[in-house]
Amino acid sequence: METWTLEDDTEGKRIQSTTSPIWDTALMLEGLCGAGIPRDDDRLRRAADWLKERQLFGPLNDVALYCPDMRTGGGWAFQYDNSWVPDIDDTTAVALSLCTQDVGALDKYWFVCATEWVLGMQNKDGGWSSFDRDCDHEWLHKIPFNDMENLTDPSTADITSRVLELCTLIIRNASAPQGRPPANLVRRAQQAIPGAIRFITSKQEADGSWRARWGVNYVLGTYLSISALASYVEEDGRGPIARIVRQGVLFLNKLQHDDGGWGEIVASYDMPPPPKGHGPSLPSTWLVREQTDLDGAGGASWPEWHFTGVGFPGKRKHGKVMAVKPKGEDEKTIMQK
Fold it and tell me: In whole angstroms, what is the distance from residue 128 CA to residue 56 CA?
């Protein structure tokens, strides 16, 4: 238990719910590639190798036992290692980030295994959930000890949107001169896309927004949904998908703050009506000058004191807040409840 504890002088010792090294490394890798760091930089190669070494291939979990038609491994966890419960969202994020670092990787063994596993986890409603397949039986919430009402794992728009981006990547590279994904993987992606689009579009709310499950909240859900659907907008710009994407863009435009950024408070999960897009601006390219702490040696960081993730929406919140210190001091991670 000591490895899961955090201690400081203010709040003493407490137990953190989880760690997120896989997720953090995948996002860092994609961000550094997007920032212009050469793909063959030794630091990026080391990060990519570190992720590949943590791909999970067993033992058999309950999904594999109840769904014998699907691949038994190939995913990644949110934590360092959790072969019993690999994470669909993390697996998709890792695959996308590794392909950003190595654009010709779609025929590699690790990519084929990961995407076959993800595609095999598609739910009957066309979407994807976090850990399970077709686990959406609402009667489970009536069990007395289910105080969090989270015994189910239904499809969500944010995860489905990320998987749709992965499918789009596969289709776009179907005829690539190198790093071409296998033909059967292309066919499976093509088969999965219509259901994914139907699910995402069905979850759009009247004001053009989408709710997110794991990140706060409507700003993130809408951004992910329109990003995934943008590749399927009709050529004339007048079809149903074009209209849906346009509504999402208008929703985000209305929420932009005077300082150029967007933000949202975690109360948007459980306050009626939800305060969509209300909250201090979070770090963005428009806010670098205002929100960057320089350490005087060419380095920079973005302090983040607001919750940007949620464990059990409407029941209990937890978040990771990074207290960024000047150069030479330790960074402290504070788990808040």
Answer: 19
